[in-house]
Amino acid sequence: MFDLSLIAHAPILSLAIGLFAVTAVAISKSGFGGAAGSLATPIMLVVFAPTQALGILLPLFIVIDLWVVWFWRHLGVRRIIIAMTVTGLFGQLTGWLLLRYGAINDDILTLFIAFLALYTGGKYFAKLAFSVQTKQAIRAEIRAYRRRLTSRALIWCSLSGFSSFVSLTGGIPAQVYLLPLNLPRQLFVATMAWYLLFLNLAKVPLYGELSFITPSTITLSLILLPAVPVGIMIGRYLNRTLSDKVFYIITHILLILLGCQILWRYMSS
């Protein structure tokens, strides 16, 4: 039986906000790699408690990830996916332990992620505006970065797994790790999709153990499900029609906007 208790107080507003959040996530994950999906949790907090928002969104995130992986299934970079997933799961397990025993205060994490997003986006546009590097120098920089895939994953993807578990904002540190590799846009989206799928699937038993997922959250997830294919089709269309340069410009703009939004939310709380 459906449990509609979560939206009984404001059904129209709750459903409108939920549909908007899920559509935005689907567009982000299928078109731009997923960091803008971090907006979903703050949007949902307008009408839902944090644990309720996480429980409602997680099944929908998994459905979106499965769909995006199916679309781009032949394009993920296996070596990068493995490095990201192993370190991301380590960070996620850390988040679960801290949350389970009440030892977590995510204020510092929130601020760090906000400044990290602003720094990464700002650095990208500073390079566009002021860099005089030759193409050969840029390629050498990318090669050097790729040689440090595992060591950098230990930092950024562990942080990604941790922040993903406690607030579903793991896409930001993951993109900070992945963006400097300068992958073609479809490889970028496919690699992020595989990583986020594995990360989100691993959350299910842990969220269940913490009682984040309940009959009422599952009911809301099912009601919001029709927004998923709409957002995915829009995101996939945008990804196919953009050039790699425009794709990276838009992705970094979204990263800066997310950093500003997180910082503003922290300052106003």
Helix and strand topology:
Blueprint lengths: L10 H21 L8 H5 L5 H22 L6 H23 L6 H24 L4 H13 L1 H19 L3 H8 L6 H25 L5 H10 L2 H15 L2 H25 L1
Helix pairs in contact: 1-3, 1-11, 3-9, 3-10, 4-7, 4-9, 5-12, 7-8
Pairing-aware structural class of the strands and helices? mainly alpha
Q: What separation lies between the terminal Cα atoms? A: 37 Å
Give the quaternary arrangement of the chains: single chain
Strand tally is 0
Radius of gyration: 18 Å
Proportion in helices = over 70%
**Range of strand content:** under 5%
Mean pLDDT: 78
The 3D shape can be described as globular
Please provide a written account of the structure.
The chain has 269 residues and is an all-alpha fold. The protein has 12 helices and no strands. The radius of gyration is 18 Å and the shape is globular. The termini are far apart.
In short:
The protein has 269 residues and is mainly α.
Characteristic key phrases:
269 residues; mainly alpha
